[in-house]
Hints:
Elements: E1 4-9, H1 14-27, H2 35-43, E2 48-54, E3 57-67, E4 74-82, H3 91-107, E5 111-117, H4 122-133, E6 137-144, E7 151-158, H5 169-184
Parallel strand pairs: 4-5
Antiparallel strand pairs: 1-2, 2-3, 3-4, 5-7, 6-7
Amino acid sequence: MQDLEFATIEDWDEALWARMEPIYHDAFPSGAKTKSILRNMLNRGIGCLHTGVHQGEVVALAVTGMVGKAAHRILIIDYLAVEQKLRGSGIGTWMLEQLKAWGLREHGIKGMIIEAESGTTEAHRKRIQFWQSNGFVLTSYVHQYRMVPEPYQAMILPLDGSTHVSDDGEALFRYINAFHKVAYRKS
């Protein structure tokens, strides 16, 4: 797909969210953060929304946050979604490249972390394969949240060879849990 535009949104925009929301809810029908939580994350400066736009239409989105001190800053990709009919067209990989470039340029990130559902279905395998095909390393540790039925595994993409970014799943979940703790805080 040609002519994609990437944008990062740091201030809540209700009209833009209305264009993003169908993709978000289609990709994450249950267990996703509510609009209120996402809006609070942006309003408090702890998260960003990112869009991929083609001919004026939002075709992809991401929700991200930062953890760690400046010398060890990590970009958490909380959610990444592509419009269903365009999945498999390379837009997800394009979004990841844009997120990586933005994170390096704006925040000097040392790595990127995601958590992937650790299931045995074909959909779970395809998601993990997508991340692995984009350079992410799957850790063996399986994390079980108390309030979420699905188990998860952390995946990491180290970006700075001079800085050690742990590939230990338990250590990576400390980053993820630190981000979630702040994201779900009311104020």
